[in-house]
Amino acid sequence: MRASRIGLAAGLGILFLAGAAHAAGDAAAGKTVFENQCAACHTTEVGKNGFGPSLAGVAGRKSGSLAGYTYSAAMANSNLTWDAATLDQFLASSTTKVPGTSMPVAIADATARANLIAYLATLAGAPAAAAAPAPPPTPLPAGPTSDELLHSATDTQGWLYASKDYTGGRYVALNQINAGNAHTLRAACIYRSSTTGSLQTSPLVYKGILYFTIDNVTVAIDATTCREKWTNTWDLKTTPLSKSNRGAAIANGRLVRGTPDGYLIALNMANGALLWSQKIADPNMSQYLSMPPLIYGDTIIYGPAGADWGEKGWIGAFNLETGERIWKFNLIPDADEPGADSWKDPAARAHGGGSLWTPLALDAAKGVLYIPVGNPAPDFFGAARPGDNLYTNSLVALDVKTGKLLWYHQFGPNDVNDRDLSQVSPLFSATVKGNARNLVTVSGKDGLLRVFDRDTHEQLYELPITTRTGVEEKPTVAGVHGCPGLLGGMEWNGPAYSPTAKTLYVATVDWCGTFTKLPNPPAFALNAHYYGGAVTPDPRDQARGWLYAIDAASGTVRWHQQWPTPLLAAVTATAGGVLFTGDLDNNFLAIDAANGKTLYKFNTGGSIGGGVLTYAIGGKQYVATTSGVVSGFFGGTGAATIVVFTLP
């Protein structure tokens, strides 16, 4: 409760113009309620706090903002304004209104709440003071520089991109933790956020600070002690379609991320202060922002999600210093663009889908950007959009500087089973039958892993990485069973590649379902799923996961294990011969890369479906994992948490 201090008249106005549903109470009776319920912790004197903040001038104040009082993180980040409606909800159940608050309040009687609110409206705050000169902005810290980002694959002290580096290798040349000692790992520290929400983020580490996102919140903590450095909560301007967020990007002192309501924002890495915001997407255009950005030089690469709501997808480049757009490529072509004729009904392109929701990959030496494009819309009803539906379910290669199309390959024309292409990494080079080749790994929710030659565009091999049955079956009104189901195959975290073992490590979801379609084509409706059918998943207790080790050049499976839960978390490979990952049974896992044996597991208290990373600080190797609720589809348990491990 801080921000502007208002006088009695303004306070009464804000409180009682909040809505007719909150009728004025009896202030005199409310004073008695205050003395009985609130006075033990709060004063009504300006400038004098008790256990809780002074309630003088509380009417109309912003939550967590009274100068001179230290709030809990939950209150500081709740973004409430204390009008009559909000006060009534908070007083009825404080922990429901502000989960994680250290102030438990529950006044069941509505009349008592109304009387108390009326009394609080009479408490004037301090008179307005002359505005003090604004302090100078905190200087931007140095780095990560373009050179550091270009060489992040060999960096052992940081984790500078969502999938470690531009190639998406998810490999770190550290061996202090190895197959011989990983069983002695111990939790070094735990950061537990008071923010509720799904945790699919890929954390970043630079100069000893770990940065991560939870929905519309961004947090920076010490990467060895878990002590919070700063928190930024983006104030949503409108109701988003989805709040899920999979991470940020960092460069030149700036942290860049998308927000659920369609803004691309840049924060000062030193203190989380907002540097700029640009609205680039809109829920009213069936869009939200969830993917981790890629920053190359002074350019941010980004695009929206929202295919399941009927967006028209695109990807763009934006200036790092200002957020202004540099170029745009339509993933659902306009009428005069190549690929438009793959939509036989031109009207279908207006809501054709083509989400971006997972990391991109970049061949920085050649300036080629690789993009995984998601499913077409409407889901499950291909007759509503006849044709191949470019560029959905495609690997698209663009010139990173201009956005010009270089080549593409579509893996699922006119997809009706929501089997997105989700990953176009790692990029790697290998000798195949005596020839050096530059390769790209391609995988998705269809449960296949493919390796393509980046120069000739030839597919070297493909192999199943989860159960695949009934894959050619299309949804019917009566329903058909197929594997993978809606949630199967490769999700938002891609494979890892070890250049020392020349092996791809792949974690997937094995979950089947029954696909149905509507008897008639669906009508598009704003802010509603654009579905022409549905998928009924098999019982949750039948959902499994797979962990594979695959010879990267030949596609030969070295070993594989079925897991008792879906595997959604990132897999990180190391020079120590250890894989780090996690599962939905709350386990952080260290696994022997040679044979798949579990070397160490730790119950984090929450499900693991986001990033898992390793880095060295002060000569000591650490491993950090996300932990908490994963999503509405996959469920999960636990508050949003970061757990950091190291050797004793």
Can you walk me through this structure?
The protein is mainly beta. It is 8% helix and 31% strand. It contains 7 helices and 37 strands. Strands 1-31-32-33-34 form a 5-stranded mixed sheet, with no helix packed on it. Helix 2 packs across helix 6 (110-120) and helix 4 (84-92) crosses helix 6. It is globular. It starts with 7 loop residues before the first helix and ends with a strand. 54% of the residues are buried.
Mean pLDDT: 93
The structural class is mainly beta
Q: Tally the helices: what do you get?
A: 7
Strand order of the largest sheet: 1-31-32-33-34
Number of strands: 37
For the termini, the CA-CA separation is 43 Å
What percentage of amino acids are in beta strands?
A: 25-35%
Q: Which bin fits the share of residues in helices? A: under 10%
Low-confidence stretches: 1-22
Alpha-carbon Rg, integer: 26 Å
> Biggest sheet, open or closed, and with what strands and sense?
5 strands, mixed
Query: Which word captures the global form?
Result: globular
